[in-house]
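Board notes (copied after class):
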Amino acid sequence: MKQRALSDAELVRKYVNGDEQSLEILINRYRHKLFGYIMNKVKDKFLAEDLFQDVFIKVIHTLKEGQYNEEGRFGSWLMRIAHNMIVDHFRKLKRNKTQYDTEDFSMFDIIPAGITAEDDMILSQTVDKIRRLIRELPEEQRQVLEMRIYDNIPFKDIAEMQEISINTALGRMRYALINLRKMMERYQIELRD
């Protein structure tokens, strides 16, 4: 007689109670899906391996500290942790990125001709205003908009991470944009060409 496979929730409980092998089973259960997801986003095998390990380090700490809220969706929780770590990685990379002039590249090459300091300042202020408005959106709409626009995550992946249908993710994006336009009109924020 074949033994029934333990559910994620059962394995989590066993691990929290000291059964280290339960975590190994969970890791093996999600290894390919999680690594594939990370690899798809970062396109670098060594970085993907580092992030994969970081995800499980975070999982171990969260479980050991008793902070995991069992909702029966361990796999989705794991994917959310991976997503957040990927986003954090790229934000850190963006923050720390410094460009120096070389023989082949000059910072002036990427500044469009005709952009004045005033234009640049106005654009910067407009972007800041829009970011503030985005923070005023309802949480569900804001999350989908940020994941799609800032993180360039496909709607299919957003739906999976948020545990919603693709249509719901698309709807939230649509309403986020409608609400953003209304707020821009109310605060008289114009986007210049």
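Comment from the instructor: The CA atoms of residues 12 and 78 lie 12 Å apart. The helical segments are 8-16, 20-42, 45-64, 74-96, 117-136, 139-149, 155-162, 166-186.
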